[in-house]
């Protein structure tokens, strides 16, 4: 590897969502393609520059099947599948490949009809991870994915005094952010009382503590720095990345109140050379309200056990929040078609470019934000990928 190649930086040059929400007639392949076309158009580059492709969750030979559908013949591929954090981990791998000279332009694409499939009876509403390997020892007890998160939330409440009202604040503020997002699925404001009085899903989570189910897709194009001059958009640079896998069975999780973001976040910040206090906003995987709260702690935005107090008083709001979080409304209110980590990157890039419209975040000096963090979570806090992005 030459010294010039070793110093090669990676930028995100194109981002887009496919149509999202209620898409009863769409197919996952079509959503992949729609998002990919839009992201390429956003970058202003020709599809011929794409020599890397990453995807997961669709097809027998992912990502080969999806690449074939898109008409791509990549010389670098990644099919890492670690749940919702897949896309942050893939973006980290892509940045490494670009730095090493193994690729110049890597496309990440995702599409899912999770909502339409349940509606049509093609699958059930309960996601099963099977009973092979270590999971066989937990399967007889029958606890679902949401129940595992609920158990972890209860542990945090027991140890640190976190309240149901504080967890509900996460959902309330996510919905307030979604109100300014025309692409969000749910935009009507909700109150803490409405969150607490909803149907119980898994104690302590009522319905609004849990992410919605939607259809939709997203795509992100990462490029080597020499391609930036040919792009239509201003570059958003990948400054630092981190990834971590901690467990698959609850019995192997050392502490229910600590997520793998404690490791992936530390690595990402160290490699970027920035501190949490310098971040202007955060996009955090929020399948459940507790996920947002504990990830904020583990990324270093507040101390361990202080997440409940941190999320109070509107601190996560786009308007007036100390640290705007999930500025599009997140998985709790905007859209959640499955492995949502790629949507975090799309929103982070739009914010850094100043393209977020009514929900645009501003830095403390009134200028556009300069630094963002996107942190995805997979499984039941089984894996984490974190990226620090800057313009």
UniProtKB/TrEMBL annotation:
Protein name per UniProt: Acetyl-CoA acetyltransferase
InterPro entries: Thiolase, Thiolase-like, Thiolase_C_2
Domain (Thiolase C-terminal): residue spans on this chain: 242-391
Organism: Streptomyces gibsoniae
PANTHER family: ACETYL-COA C-ACETYLTRANSFERASE, NON-SPECIFIC LIPID-TRANSFER PROTEIN-LIKE 2
């Amino acid at each position: 590897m030459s010294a010039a190649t070793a110093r090669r930086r990676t930028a995100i040059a194109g981002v887009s969502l496919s149509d999202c929400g209620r898409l009863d007639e769409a197919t996952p392949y079509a959503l992949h393609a729609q998002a990919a076309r839009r992201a390429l158009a956003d970058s202003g580059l020709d599809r011929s520059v794409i020599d890397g492709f990453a995807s997961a969750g669709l097809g027998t030979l992912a990502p080969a099947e999806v690449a074939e559908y898109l008409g791509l013949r990549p010389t670098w591929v990644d099919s890492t599948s670690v749940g919702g954090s897949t896309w942050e981990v893939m973006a980290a791998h892509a940045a490494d490949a670009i730095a090493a000279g193994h690729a110049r332009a890597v496309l990440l694409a995702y599409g899912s009809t999770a909502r339409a499939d349940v509606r049509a009876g093609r699958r059930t509403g309960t996601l099963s991870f099977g009973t092979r390997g270590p999971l066989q020892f937990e399967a007889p007890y029958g606890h679902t994915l949401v129940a595992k998160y609920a158990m972890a939330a209860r542990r945090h409440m027991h140890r640190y005094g976190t309240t149901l009202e504080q967890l509900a604040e996460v959902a309330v503020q996510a919905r307030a952010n979604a109100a300014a997002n025309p692409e969000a699925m749910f935009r009507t404001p909700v109150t803490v009382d409405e969150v607490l009085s909803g149907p119980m899903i898994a104690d302590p989570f009522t319905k609004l503590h849990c992410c919605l189910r939607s259809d939709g897709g997203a795509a992100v194009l990462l490029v080597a720095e020499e391609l930036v001059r040919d792009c239509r958009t201003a570059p958003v640079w990948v400054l630092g990345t981190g990834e971590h896998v901690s467990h698959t069975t609850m019995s192997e999780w050392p502490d229910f109140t600590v997520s793998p973001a404690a490791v992936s976040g530390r690595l990402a910040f160290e490699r970027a050379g920035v501190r949490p206090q310098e971040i202007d906003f955060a996009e955090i995987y929020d399948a459940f309200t507790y996920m947002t709260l504990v990830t904020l702690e583990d990324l270093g935005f507040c101390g361990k056990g202080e997440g409940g107090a941190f999320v109070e008083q509107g601190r996560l709001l786009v308007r007036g929040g100390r640290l705007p979080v999930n500025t599009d409304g997140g998985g709790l209110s905007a859209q959640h078609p499955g492995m949502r980590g790629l949507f975090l990157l799309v929103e982070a890039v739009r914010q850094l470019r100043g393209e977020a419209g009514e929900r645009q975040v501003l830095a403390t000096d009134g200028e556009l934000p300069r630094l963002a963090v996107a942190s995805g979570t997979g499984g039941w806090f089984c894996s984490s990928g974190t990226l620090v992005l800057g313009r």
